[in-house]
Amino acid sequence: MVDCMAKQATTRSPPQIAAEYPPTELKKKISPEKHLECAAQYAYIPGNRYTNLFPFLKRNPWFYRVRDAKPKSFYRNITRLRTRHGRTNSRIHLFDPLTLPDCPRCPEDAETMAHIISECSQYEADRNDLLSSIPRDVTSPFNLDTLIAEEKLEVYECIDDFLDKIERSL
């Protein structure tokens, strides 16, 4: 039965669409109120964090300023920090519900990149070394977003050294 219907459909001419849309309908203006409502609704999409941290699009990517040879893990870790796509339990949980988003060391907290770098109690001593090695002219308060937004290679190197010290890759 289905085969017969499919054969009949191939021999028929396509249906004619009777509806016509005037050009003014395609260029419809959105009211300012509706525009603000939509902007508020979509203000917290993940890409907005990156555009808030780095509002001006640069001609060259951040790693063009790196003069010395660095291991691949340096570029991978910093890029994942900048885009917030690191391999943490909370991120993996988005794709694999069987993985718990909790930190293995702090069960009450979710394991995010910000948690690893600025909160996890297991890395307290290494974190103190990280904070003391960051140049003094960096904007405070120290949190992951302010450190990344600085776009200073010295800061990126300090963060990568911290990740190496705690034997963690993002």
Mean pLDDT: 81
Radius of gyration: 25 Å
Name the poorly predicted regions. Answer: none
Major beta-sheet overview: none
Helical fraction: 40-55%
Order of helices and strands: HHHHHHHHHH
Specify the overall morphology.
elongated
How far apart lie the N and C ends?
55 Å
Question: What can you tell me about this protein's structure?
Answer:
The chain has 170 residues and is mainly alpha-helical. It has a domain at 49-165. It has helices at residues 2-11, 23-26, 32-41, 46-53, 72-83, 89-95, 113-118, 124-133, 144-149, 153-165. The chain starts with a helix and ends in a 5-residue tail after the last helix. The model has no long low-confidence stretch (mean pLDDT 81). This is Reverse transcriptase zinc-binding domain-containing protein.
List keywords for this structure.
170 residues, mainly alpha, 51% helix, elongated
Condensed summary:
The chain has helices at 2-11, 23-26, 32-41, 46-53, 72-83, 89-95, 113-118, 124-133, 144-149, 153-165. With 170 residues, it is mainly α. The protein is elongated.
Give the helix/strand layout.
Layout (H helix, E strand, L loop, with lengths): L1 H10 L11 H4 L5 H10 L4 H8 L18 H12 L5 H7 L17 H6 L5 H10 L10 H6 L3 H13 L5
Helix pairs in contact: 5-10, 8-10
Protein name: Reverse transcriptase zinc-binding domain-containing protein
